Amino acid sequence: MNFLSILKPDEQFPTVLFTRxxxxxxxxxxxxxxxxxxxxxxxxxxxxxxxxxxLRFFENNGTPLTGDIDxxxxxxxxxxxxxxxxxxxxxxxQGWHGNGVDRYILVSRDYIGVMTGSAPxxxxxxxxGNLIVGPVHVT
Length: 139
Description:
Layout: E1 3-5, E2 18-20, E3 34-37, E4 40-47, E5 52-59, E6 69-70, E7 94-98, E8 103-108, E9 121-126, E10 131-137
Antiparallel strand pairs: 1-2, 3-4, 4-5, 5-6, 7-8, 8-9, 9-10
């Protein structure tokens, strides 16, 4: 199980000292996975043993804004799963970043083989965890 500790700019703890990354108390891993916006942050993590890759969005003080968002469930038609694939993915072949203001971007290889070649898929999220663009295949 992963926990996150937050410090304010003055290096003091805010009201929420620690928070669980995942919605439930389960084993999880976070590699290459924190994006930051003006009023919050979002974490990309995976649950081993085919629990899958997830996102979870938080306010700056650590209060969760969303539950666990399963990356394998995002998309429509043949693109469902391209951002997270099946099973547990550490994130070595993904980029997850916030723009420091109001958006997050996930760049991911095609985990389920929708397209030939190695061009990635991209998804854009708002600060509330909504996928607002994508998945889009980048050529």
